[in-house]
Amino acid sequence: MSRLLTMTDVWIEGRADEVWNPIINGINLHLDKGEVLGLIGESGAGKSTMGLAAMGFCRDGVRISKGAVDFDGIDLLKASAGRKRALLGKRIAYVAQSAAASFNPAHRIIDQHTEGPVQHSVMSRSESERDAMELYAKLRLPHPEEIGFRYPHQVSGGQLQRAMTAMAMSCRPDLIIFDEPTTALDVTTQIEVLASIRDIVTQFGTAAIYITHDLAVVAQMADRIKVLLRGDEVETAETRTMLSHPKEDYTKSLWAVRDFVRPAKPAVHTSATPVVSVQGVTAAYGKVDVLHEVSFDIHAGRTVAVVGESGSGKSTAARCITGLLPPRAGVIEFDGVVLPADYRKRNKAQLRQAQMIYQMADTALNPRKTIGEIIGRPVQFYMGLRGREKRRRVEELLDQIELPAGQYFERLPSELSGGQKQRIGIARALAAEPKFIICDEVTSALDQLVAEGILKLLARLQDELHLSYMFITHDLATVRSIADEVVVMKDGQVVEQGPKAEMFTPPHHPYTDLLLSSVPEMDPDWLDTLLAERGIDNIGDAAINKID
Amino acid sequence: MSVWVQIVGVLMACLALGWVFQFAGEKITDGTPFFRDMPLSVAFGYVLGVVVLIWIVWSYYLSRTLAAPEVNKYFFFRLAIEGFVLFSIAAWLFRLLGRTVGTRATKKLFRQMPLTASFGLMTIGIYALLAIFAGLLAPYGQEQIIPGVAANIPPGADPAIGGNADFPLGTDQIGRDILSRLIYGAQNTVGIAFVTTCLAFVLGGTLGFLAATLGGWLDQVLSRFIDVLMAIPSLIFALLLMTIASAWAGSQSGMLTVYMVLIIAVIDSTRVFRLARAVGANIVVMDYIEAAKLRGEGLGYLIFKEILPNATSPLLAEFGLRFCFVFLTIAALSFLGVGIQPPLADWGTMVRDLAQFINFASFAPQVASAPLLAAGAIALLTVAVNFVVDWMLQKSSGLKE
Fold first, then answer.
1. CATH superfamily, region A3-255
2. What fold, for A276-521?
3. What does the alpha-carbon distance between residue A84 and residue A79 come to, in Å, rounded to a whole number?
4. Which of A215, A325, A349, A467 could staple A319 via S-S, CB 3.0–4.6 A?
């Protein structure tokens, strides 16, 4: 195989506060024709920056300070703007993380698809349209003849991601850069996109750089894996070697993340009053019912994981419990007492007992308030502590979430990392001294190592403070590690519920089975095995439709 | 016709020169990306800029060397150039001062400050000083008619055209000192504009945040009412209300000023309402607001402790702009005769009173500059405030990143 892309000793810097800070520190990378390279690492490792640099491109405020990028004999860093323009889109293509944000919502999909080939004079408009339909069919999009004539908002997220892959393919490039193409998708949809991408890449012999933070995904896609950490290369190896014999400690720690599992707790006494009891709740946005007769109990000191895809009603159930969305029918009981449906009618003690931790710590913390103020407010509001007592309590809470109080008290949220922000969110919930905490996808925006730290912290707090959790998630690995009981939801209904051990052993409800089997595993043959078992036409949407 | 041919000819020449510039640059520097990737339009821009610069320098040279009648054509041009250079140097020195004197925080602020912002800050500072210490700084009273002094002494203190060194900016149509009136005008016009803007912000901001937080029918009622107010052209509306108000106020000119403040505040609060509501609506959907609501916080805490701190930068920027508009409205109303009432000095009134001298511009530019002094004071403050606002916006958007 011949060499397609060579990046030698690339140094990249980003400008912040009037100084240039290093982002990438002298990384070498090479890619042969038709090869797929996986780039993995935590957020901030420089994966995306490296991916863009492979196209000779930098974001604003970023510069390639040293090194060379050689694409098929062309030095991309020295090439003129015109030369690069002729290359990008035609021979090098890019697939972004969020297809929904990358498509122009004002134009039809096929109009955006044909733009590239026509611009680069690869095909005429009508040829390109025919070709688009073929590509759509190859990517197994439904109704390939007409789906291109829809607007981006008229197709689902997974379909849009595949349409974007088709668009990247439109000029038959030699190299495609995939920047986290499935991160924003549900597991069941993810498989579909993964299978499609892999198929089309092998079919056309396209080389690819596949950027992701999900090891199991990269194991399915890549021939070779390169691990990055804060701009430095940790190691590079063939996928199988890397998975079976990682050399560096950091890589090993990445591999070990999914091993954290809490020991099972004894079964709940049947006569015990649950802390929270959701009874026959039906709720609606406007006239459309989004929850149908949902019932489940959460007992003291237990974690109930609510799983399901986006749109299954998990978060709506949480909104009903908090009182943000008063249910149309059914009641919420707290310690055996019926709670008022609307949060405005609940008293301070009732509000204090149930707290919430949010998915996006960025929007959950007021960016203009210091950590001391954020955690101090509920302390003052509920406990009536002021001055020195308040400060002592806040420091105690910071101690509980394993952050040194002295350093963080005066900081603003923007000065913290994602994991630290999430810890502050936990501390704010704890400050109310609640019995029950709703965790809404608290780890899904975090890197795996950081997420593991958060899960361990939550587990420890539960043991120490005897808390009950309602843990909303779509990630079954998280469920496996932290849950005591599992509630599976689909289309606003509870499909199956029970203790974790029961839920993870067959026989399952077909939907639970689908969810479980769709979670990527570290085994590089997992996707092939799964496809062989289920058949190519029985994954993703098709499989879900079959259950209905 | 020939003028157009000349202009087109010059532009074509610029285009040709631009091409030569880019080509030569690429050859001489051996293909640096700067020249290599330069589009023809950009090269054309560079050449055009140089041509304009040469023209400015040449015109300034003419304005210093030509004799009496021709030089009048260049009088205001010369003034503008000299003023520009003078203010630039002053702003640069002001920034230098800020960098060496003061606390560490202010030093850092001045180090990162563009020249425009330091010009703006300096100008606003000077205006503020003039307004506060008007009584001490002004050589005469604002209403004082000095006995034995002629009316309409031209500015410039040039005895050849009837100037008087005791009145460097001349006297107005009934013999009052223009310099003193300009200084008092800062107090009246700027002071009243500031009060009015603050009032408009308290009113519009509070209602806007309330509408954003509570939503529902209150939002609908308030927003539609504001829409109705905004549908009426603001100056005409203000004029109409001022006419009514002057009937109410009768002979008390003090009351009329109070009415004017209220009227302009209400009319301008509609714009503030729109902004506050839009900004507030974006903040209200954040999870930290939901968390505060679920904590059981009251409306006051939500608005002033959670929403307001996140809305300060757009509101502050709007404050600067709104201040300019209010200030111009007051000047306009005074110019039309319903604003600040004589004998109080006001820049708008001063422009109106001396307006007929503008006709002298072509043959006696110094005389014509009398009404333009007050107009220039208005323009300078407006530009200064806008520079500062731009700078603050840039800073706050940098923070968001």
1. P-loop containing nucleotide triphosphate hydrolases (3.40.50.300)
2. Rossmann fold (3.40.50)
3. 6
4. A325
CA distances from A54 to A88, A203, A424, B185 (A): 11, 23, 37, 63
Strand, helix or coil for residue B160: helix
Which residues of chain A have a CB within 8 Å of the CB of B37? 80-82
Which residues touch A205 (CB under 8 Å, ≥6 apart)?
A33, A34
**Nearest-neighbour CA in chain B from A390: distance (Å):** 17
Nearest to A486 by CA among A282, A279, A269, A264: A264
- With an 8 Å Cβ cutoff, are A377 and B295 in contact? yes
Which among B287, B293, B296 has CB closest to A364? B287
Q: How far apart are CA A19 and CA A34, in angstroms?
A: 39
Gap from A426 CA to chain B (nearest CA, Å): 12
- Reduced to 3 DSSP states, what percent helix, strand and coil does chain B have, rounded to the nearest 5? 80, 0, 20
CATH code matching the domain that covers B178-400, chosen among 1.10.10.10, 3.40.1180.10, 1.10.3720.10, 3.30.460.10:
1.10.3720.10
- Residue B61, token pair as written in the block: 């040279």
B84 φ, ψ to 5°?
-60, -50
Q: What's the pLDDT band for A540 if we cut at 50, 70, 90?
A: low
Query: Is B309–A368 a contact, with Cβ atoms under 8 angstroms apart?
Result: yes
The domain locations on chain B are: 1-65, 72-113, 178-400
Where are the domains positioned within chain A?
Answer: 3-255, 276-521
Q: In whole numbers, what is the pLDDT of chain A averaged over residues?
A: 83
Q: Is the pLDDT of residue B341 over 80?
A: no
Nearest to B288 among A322, A346, A366 (CB): A366
The backbone torsions φ and ψ at residue B400, rounded to the nearest 5 degrees and listed phi first, read -60, -35
Q: What is the pLDDT of residues B53-84, one digit of tens each?
A: 999 999 899 888 877 777 778 888 888 889 89
**pLDDT tens, A35-53?**
888 888 877 778 888 888 8
Question: What's the token pair of residue B312?
Answer: 């300060």
Query: Rounded to a whole number, what is the distance in Å from the CA of B101 to chain A's nearest CA?
Result: 22
Q: In this predicted structure, what is the pLDDT of residue B400?
A: 39
Q: How many CB atoms lie within 10 A of CB A293?
A: 14
Give CA–CA dist A382/A400, Å, rounded. Answer: 19
Which of B33, B294, B297 is closest, CB to CB, to A322?
B294
CA distances (Å), origin A35, targets A5, A175, A208, A301, A501: 10, 9, 6, 50, 41
